[in-house]
Amino acid sequence: MAKRVLSRRFLPPDPNVEEPYRLTPRLALRVGLLGVVAVAVFATLLLRLWSLQILNGAQLLRAAENNQRREVRLQAPRGAILDRNGLPLVINVPGTIVQIDQSTLPRRTSVRLRELRRLARVLKVPVGEIGANLRHNRNDVLTPVTIKSGVSDLQAAYLSERSDDFPGVTVETVPLRYYPHRELAAHVLGYTGEISQQQLDTLARQGYRAGDTIGQTGIEAEYDKYLRGMPGLAVKRVDSLGHPVAPTTPLVPAHPGEAVRLTLDLKLQIAAEEALRYGIERARNSGCQGCWYSNGGAIVALDPRDGSIRALASNPTYPPSLYVGRVRQRALDAAGLTARSARAMNYPALDRAIDAAYPPGSTFKPVTALAAMQEHILQPYEPLACTGQYTNHGQVFKNWDPFVNEAMTLPTALAQSCDTYFYQVGYRFYGMPSRLGPRLQAWASRFGFGRRPPSTWARR
């Protein structure tokens, strides 16, 4: 039997085998490849750690800090609306609102619904209305959704003390619109409301954002870009659950809106609205036939020196405060501001002074008189008969006073508003030469009829 020759290339002897494993070139190659892979993996991990710690450390630190901060848009106080003497017509008062940050609401549907139901009971707001507001803003989860404005102190204290039970719910103090004279000049002043999606699509380039308050009608809408001011920006630090862990830090202060001074005179506006209410009530109580037309009316007082509007009243009217904060459908129905109740209350939202079409009536008599005198077809002290009716070519024109029968000069006819006097004056224009054209219409045009008047509402 041949004797075995031991080699140094052999592995240590193994008693369980007749011959130890041999380190063959193939096995050595496998071990080498495995070592290279291990070194490459560890080198990659080391390079990645070096990149995270050294190269991108500052950037990642800022990103981690940003996960703990929320940027909050600060609503700017709207500017006041004043009368011509600087007396306030619309101002701001501090009010408490409740908002929901959708990004920090509970993820589980059942837990979220349970929280919203508790919140609805505290605020006395239907849970369906809260859900509708959240769905309306579901595409912008970073902007807090206002659930209720004008929250009482007890409700605000309850929610603040139990903030852990209402994650995502915040109580804030913001300026709210206040109308010290209630429904006075409501159609002129208008009201504000949350910006609609249609308005946002049009005004987004002008800096408007979802949840902003914007003027909807009247002066509030016409001069909104001056009244709204510039919103500010603040930072609020929160924990992983979205709960505030530090006071809100302002970054960019909000700039209040500019005050707008109108040409309205507060005292004259009050007198005009009281006179309008008195006239309507007197007409209703007179018992005359056809007085149902007296369910509404309007008064406009102009300064003859520059055409500025000193008073503009329309009746029936409404209190603009109904649109401050959470708008309640029941309150709008009771005020006649919805489609189903407006007709029964004679359309309170209609501004009869500028939005309704009426014949000019007796206000056109001075135009007729001045045009006739300029055309030398009427002398101011020429007497004409003022009777109960005037007939011409078979057409009967009636006077507002069917019992009058006397001769009047122009000053008396204007003072008594005699219709039949001016029917006779108007007919004289038809006797003028046709080559001159319609002279009465020409003079009416010179007085501005048919043209849009210049804006004399306000100045900043």
Please describe what this structure looks like.
The strands form 6 sheets. Strands 2, 3, 4, 5, 10 and 17 form a 6-stranded mixed beta sheet that branches. This protein has 4 domains: 8-67; 70-260, Penicillin-binding protein 2a (Domain 2), CATH 3.90.1310.10; 266-334, no CATH class; 361-446, 3-Layer(aba) Sandwich (Beta-lactamase). The protein is elongated, with a radius of gyration of 40 Å. It is 34% helix and 18% strand. It is built from 15 helices and 17 strands.
What is the element layout, followed by pairings?
Elements: H1 25-55, H2 57-66, E1 69-74, E2 81-82, E3 88-100, H3 109-123, H4 127-136, E4 145-149, H5 153-161, E5 169-178, H6 186-189, E6 192-194, H7 197-203, E7 213-215, H8 218-222, H9 224-227, E8 232-237, E9 249-252, E10 260-262, H10 266-285, E11 297-302, E12 309-315, H11 329-334, H12 365-374, E13 384-386, E14 389-392, E15 395-398, E16 406-408, H13 410-416, H14 419-428, H15 439-446, E17 458-459
Helix pairs in contact: 12-14, 12-15
